[in-house]
Amino acid sequence: MSFENMFKPIQIGPMNVPNRFVVPPMGNNFANTDGSLSEKSKNYYAARAKGGFGLITIESSVVYYKSKGGPRKPCLFDDSVIDSFKNVIDACHAEGAKVSVQLQHAGPDVNQAIAGYPIVAASPIPSKDGQYTSAIFEDSSNCAKYVNENMQNNGFKVNGIFERSDLTGFNWSQVPVVLLEMGFMSNYTEDQNMSSPQYQEKMMTCVADGLDNYFKNKK
Question: Most buried of 60, 64, 83, 194 (most Cβ within 10 A)?
Fold first, then answer.
């Protein structure tokens, strides 16, 4: 494994992140039904910060009151939730981590029974034909295949590769991009496994080795 920079600090705008390890946004349904973050949310994110991740991303925080996709989604369209977000962020800062927030409009996944409004969303576009993703589609797909193969060869169950062109991080990228979603917090066994430093190391070693294979075989 040849990714020494993963352990080095990085400057992102005015923010200095202590290393390159990031907890990506993962929906966990720990938020309260009013959109505020719960004590369980705080404990969940603080545990990841304590484990050594340099940047913690709070998941799918709804930005518009008509676009809530589930009953326990964090919401940021009302000032009443600010204190709950601050509690979570302070807990992560206390462990040395920085915090970012994923902003979300649920699009076609809006739950009308919860939001009470009609669905408003963009039309789906296949990734390889997308206006913004076609140039990086082939390389991104190959990279994902190498990571997928390496994970499967090391005994991890992989749900497959899904092609997307409707994600902001994809459709403005000029380099190959792959988003990894690893495990489900609602699955007790997986949650316990991913709390283990040895399991975390095994997972990330598999990912890093898959990336190495991609670059070694890149034409």
Answer: 60
